[in-house]
């Protein structure tokens, strides 16, 4: 049997990843049309897409780049609130809901990318625990800034204040959009499952093309041996910053999609626990394994809802499932037993090799 070339194998793996996402979308649409999905599960479809995108984005930093970031919920919140402010401010100017959603996601992605550059330039010179601590601090700083920020809109444009809503000085007919610790309470819901599906496909395309490009190979070379990579002229800060900002942009778009699914959103929803949840998706799905991140994020996010009938034991069952997944992905005996299954699902190595 002829052995597959690396490029051919990569093409097959990428096709499986795309096929898996498209098949899931088609199946869910059929189930929705047939009334086989409960209203609670239907309400989780957009958040699942947002968190799948977040897992893909964070895997680019943690798995592909090899840097531990604990502040990605901060980029998500930047995208969420900038997207919501744009949505409400431009409601009369852009009456088309799909177009306004697209513009809001682009605005969220741009602002998150700017935040990624501001944070990444000084922070990516650090390594290991120091980088994790600084990114954690960034996430908390963003949350605290949003908690004291008031934004309103009237015929004269946007107004900003860090004092209170009255200090905005809005003209008659103006309205406050962001109300400090209350967040946004008058958001117009625009997100759809189709938009989330498209965002997931975009995230997969961006990350896989980046990983398989010259830049991606440079990033992985720095991850595997920084000294050797720098000795042949690969700039560590430059290439790691590209991966970090790309991840932040995807996180911002995911945050805007997530926020557009609710009428009210507060900064406390994007705290340290949200960053850890996304990191759990990445680790359990496999470092450097894009397909595994997608599966882990989708299954683990919806699992508590599926266990709602077992309310008293829900978190116990959830913890047991997490332990079993960790055993299955790290224990040699479990690897051998589940080898065929995990080969199909695209199990990633702990070393973080980008297989898809």
Automatic annotation (TrEMBL):
It is a multi-pass membrane protein. It holds the Pfam family BPD_transp_2. One of its GO terms (molecular function) is branched-chain amino acid transmembrane transporter activity. The chain crosses the membrane at residues 12-31, 43-62, 74-93, 99-124, 131-153, 190-211, 241-260, 272-303, 315-334. It is found in: Cell membrane. GO terms for cellular component: plasma membrane. Keywords: Cell membrane, Membrane, Transmembrane, Transmembrane helix. This is Branched-chain amino acid ABC transporter permease.
């Amino acid at each position: 049997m002829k052995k597959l070339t690396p490029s051919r194998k990569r093409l097959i793996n990428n096709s499986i990843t795309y096929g898996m996402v498209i098949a899931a979308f088609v199946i869910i649409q059929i189930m929705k049309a047939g009334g086989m999905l409960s209203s609670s599960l239907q309400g989780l479809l957009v958040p699942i897409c947002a968190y799948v995108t977040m897992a893909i984005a964070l895997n680019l930093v943690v798995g592909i780049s090899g840097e531990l970031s604990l502040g990605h919920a901060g980029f998500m919140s930047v995208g969420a609130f900038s997207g919501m402010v744009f949505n409400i401010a431009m409601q009369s100017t852009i009456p088309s809901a799909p177009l306004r959603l697209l513009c809001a996601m682009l605005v969220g992605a741009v602002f998150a990318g700017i935040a990624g550059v501001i944070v990444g330039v000084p922070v990516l010179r650090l390594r290991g625990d120091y980088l994790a601590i600084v990114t954690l601090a960034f996430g908390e700083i963003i949350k605290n800034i949003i908690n004291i920020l008031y934004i309103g809109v009237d015929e004269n444009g946007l107004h900003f204040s860090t004092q209170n809503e009255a200090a905005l000085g809005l003209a008659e007919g103006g309205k406050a959009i962001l109300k400090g610790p209350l967040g946004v309470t008058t958001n117009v819901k625009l997100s759809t499952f189709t938009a989330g599906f498209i965002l997931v496909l975009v995230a997969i395309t961006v990350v896989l093309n980046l990983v398989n490009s010259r830049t991606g190979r440079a990033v992985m070379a720095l991850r595997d041996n920084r000294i050797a990579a720098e000795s042949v002229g690969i700039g560590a800060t430059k290439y790691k910053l590209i991966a970090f900002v790309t991840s932040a942009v995807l996180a911002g778009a995911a945050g805007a999609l997530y926020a557009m699914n609710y009428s009210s959103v507060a900064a406390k929803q994007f705290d340290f626990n949200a960053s850890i949840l996304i990191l759990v998706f990445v680790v359990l799905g496999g470092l450097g394994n894009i397909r595994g991140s997608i599966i882990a994020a989708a299954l683990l996010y919806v699992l508590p809802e599926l266990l709602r009938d077992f309310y008293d034991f829900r978190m116990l069952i959830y913890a047991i499932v997490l332990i079993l997944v960790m055993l299955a992905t790290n224990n040699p005996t479990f690897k051998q037993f589940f080898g065929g299954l995990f080969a199909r699902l695209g199990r990633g190595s702990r070393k973080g090799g980008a297989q898809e």
